Amino acid sequence: MTTITATATAAPATAAPVTAATAKAGRARTVRRVAWLANALFWTAFAVLEGVNHGWLAVLLAVVFFIAPDLTFLAGARDAHKVEKGQLPARAVPYYNAAHRALVPVALIAIYTVVPFTWAPIFAGMCGWLAHISFDRAFGYGLRTKDGFQRR
Predict the structure, then answer these.
(1) What is the pTM of this model?
(2) Helices and strands per DSSP (H, E), number in the chain
């Protein structure tokens, strides 16, 4: 006669225990990411609206400024083979962080609203730039440490 015994498998020793503090931090991170996603959708809609209202040049600048922040990766292309997966070469970090700080396009938009110079494609470009930064934050990509790793 065979007996069947139930055996419990233990969680790996490396798994961190879930505490109230870690659960709360996880919820806060989720709320921040949802807020960044809402922000990204707002700035994307604004860039599209500027493109519809002001033509192809506004669309072009919005798209260029949406893509441009990630071109900072090229500053470290020469050293890309020397770093770990997910790490940005240290040479590119200052450029990447400067292009991915939301304060820069927000400040430019603030300046744009008070100076007498108005050209809608510039505003559309800044909307595209803010949309890019917001999408990055919503999907978990933030600024980098000096070593090129994601900040947590």
Answers:
(1) 0.83
(2) 5, 0
**Which residues are CB-neighbours of 79 under 8 A, at least 6 positions away?**
89, 90, 91
- On whether the CB atoms of residues 33 and 136 are closer than 8 A, the answer is no
* Tokens standing for residue 28: 């806060």
Task: Give Cα 104 distance to the centre of its chain.
Answer: 14
CB contact at 8 A, 67 and 51 = no
- CA separation (Å) from 80 to 73, 90, 133? 9, 10, 23
What is d(CA 122, CA 118) in angstroms, rounded to the nearest whole number?
8
Instruction: Give helix 103-114 / helix 120-138 axis angle, nearest 10°.
Output: 160
105-137 tens-digit pLDDT: 999 999 999 999 889 999 999 999 999 999 999
DSSP 22-61: HHHHHHHHHHHHHHHHHHHHHHHHHHHHHHHHH-HHHHHH
Classified as helix, coil or strand, 116 is: coil
Asked if 99 and 72 count as a contact pair (C-beta separation under 8 A), the reply is yes
